[in-house]
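Reposting from the mailing list since nobody answered there.

I have sequence plus structure tokens for a pair of proteins and want to know whether others read the tokens the same way I do. The first protein:
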Amino acid sequence: MDRDLYLHETFGCDDPVLTRILERMKERDMPPISVLPSLGRLLTLLVKTAGAERVLEIGALGGYSGVCLARGLGKDGTLTSLELSPTFAEFARSNLAEAGFAEQVRYRVGPAISSLASLVLEGARFDFVFIDADKPNYANYLEYALQMALPGTLICADNVLLGDRILDSANQDASVVGMRTFVQRLTSNHRLESVGLPIGDGFAIARVAR
């Protein structure tokens, strides 16, 4: 048995609800880029541990990570999820409803930058932010997240290694450059305590100072 299989079986990552979401995504030929099961469980634990009640998700896709985030909320907690595609947003909404979170999730459809700008103008505040959307804009998403963060807010991001492409200094692809900028800003901002973890495609966690 290899290490990954051992951890998967020992920590019980099999989940009928999440497995069904993946199956439905495959039936619709949606990109297979949801978070790993272990990362989904980590998101749930982080939301619970932080006691977060207002969660922002940038990038809904099929609702897999949305379910994981919502599972960490208390009964009065809310999830605001941003998604570019109306089709994906509606599909994610149906999956969250099926998982029992219809009353706790709100979707905003369109470019995330526009949705974030609107949230800032509305005075929205969040105590947990998960970034998993288009990579060239990660640094911009971070800036908006900081504008809406509370003391102690956790800001998490997936895919920070980009299949290890970020390690190649000669690679100037827009996604790679965008991710390098994001990581630099995340690690140099005096308001943030941050850590990078070698989970999946790289996972970053930062906490806004109190």
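The second protein, same order (residues first, tokens after):
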Amino acid sequence: MTKLKSFALAVALAAAALPAAAQTFPDHPIRIIVPQPPGGGFDAVARVIADPLQKILGQPVVVENRAGAGTLVGTEYAAKAAPDGYTLLLGGTSNMALNLGLYPKLAYDPVKDFTPVGLVVSWPFMLLTRKDLPYKTVNDIVDAAKAKPGALNFASAGVGSGQHVATAVFAYLAGIELTHVPYAGAQAAYTDLLGGRVDLFSDNAQTALPQVKGDTVRPIAVTTRKRYAAMPDLPTIAESGLSDIDMETWFGLFAPSGTPAPVLAKLAAAVEQARTNPATVEILNKSGGDMKTIGNDEAKAFVTAEAERWSKLLRDAGIRAE
């Protein structure tokens, strides 16, 4: 009986402490876990949003890169973190939607183990080719691939990366065979694309845009159904007849499930303020980003729908990361 009373008292004290903790939140630094190395799309978004966020919350917001196994290591770490609001995850299409279909067994559930704090920005993927190749349109690439199955190859930033999925899904829907050449990151892929050792590369428009503006590669199309505002003359892949293609890389902040509602409310309000900060908007707009306008009430449904859609498509296409 004494043990039962002690347990009941501990539960009561913990419950009573929640409102007080929410009132004083935050009272020490917050971490944003980035499941990719520094320099990529995940990292860039985290650092852009961290600066205004720490000014709004009055505490340091530290970006912590935990790379490994694609995006698995950092995401799994964040899923197991204490649900107190002090550890957040920079989530995106890759770790919150694609991984469910890419891996037969996943150590986390992006829908059940996380709660969206706020979506921030998105970019389409851009299908690129070497400038010395004759291809100018999606149909040029499809015709060449059908004439010589497997002869054309494509780079990616690694097996299971968004770049891998974007081109693999394109090939699946177009009914063509392309040879995958994975690299350890986008920069290594660009080195060989510019060097003439690979033919195609579908990259996040955030990092592709400087290459296009520098006239080092030829843009063919974007992967979203609507045209890219930063390059309105560039067609979509869907315009070539592959209407099922609609892929963007979106990013947002997520908290481990079980984070107290008052803490989530404070974080969500702060993220919304940081996201709409004029300096933040200017930086992301300059990189061609499309600011996300989905409210928190809709974010959970959006992430759930993305996870279900991509899981089915990747399994149907037989695209795996292992």
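Reply #1 (J.P.):
I read it the same way you do. The first strand starts at residue 30 and ends at 34.
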